[in-house]
Amino acid sequence: VESRGLGATMLCPAKYLAQIIVMGVQVVGRAFARALRQEFAASRAAADARGRAGHQSAAASNLSGLSLQEAQQILNVSKLSPEEIQKNYEHLFKVNDKSVGGSFYLQSKVVRARERLQEELRIQAQEDREKEQMPKT
Fold first, then answer.
1. What is the pLDDT of residues 22-41, one digit of tens each?
2. Which residue of 75, 94, 116, 119 has the fewest C-beta atoms within 10 A of its own C-beta?
3. What Pfam families does the database record attribute to this sequence (predicted)?
């Protein structure tokens, strides 16, 4: 009878340990869920702050597979100048031609970068037209 009583007391610490582990997992789970909700809210607020132009630019990045910064780096342009974009595009397209030992992959990246920058120029022109049409206050 005494050995059975001793076994019951040995289970008691294991039971407490299991309860502590379960409570710890619940606390961590709640903290993770709260952090995730906060991150979603912050992301939504940042997207709203960027406004409609940001949405168009982000959509253009998704379609082309390149961000604006990546496209600028590929074509080595610092500002969005149609002349500079075209000049750098023509040079990089020629030097990456397969017939002169270039890379088709790099050539396609150059084409995608030009397309992405041209789309950004189109978005900016549209924004400028919309600003001009707004009544002055």
1. 999 999 989 988 988 888 87
2. 94
3. Pam16 (PF03656)
Structure token digits, residue 98: 């397969």
CA atoms of 26 and 22, how far apart (whole Å) = 6
Question: 18: how many CB neighbours lie within 10 A of its CB?
Answer: 10
pLDDT score recorded for residue 88: 96
Distance CA(117)–CA(54), nearest Å, equals: 14
Tokens encoding 5: 């009583």
Q: What is the pLDDT of residues 98-129, one digit of tens each?
A: 999 999 999 999 999 999 999 999 988 988 88
